[in-house]
Amino acid sequence: MIFKDVRNGRPYPEHNLSTRDWSRIPPQQVRLEQLVTTTTVLELDRLLSSDSTFFGDLFPHTVRWRGELYLEDGLHRALRAALHQRTVLHARVLELDALR
User: Which domain of life is it from (predicted)?
Assistant: First the structure.
């Protein structure tokens, strides 16, 4: 299994972070096996695109909520890492547990 779980939807409260807000969170290593996805659908063209990060953040966005680590944005990056046999990737982690 690549991810801890695959879900459809975000169980955590809305955080309203902008792209600029996300860029202030330093990336850290996360294990793919700890991630819970928030979507069950992947657009294959995003996975296969060589410039998939050209208009977006280089690092996936994850949210820690109630002890779980949810992959909010960057599923194609996480799957690409898994296809390259990597078990970790660098991601930005928003600690919602700490804000509550």
Answer: Bacteria
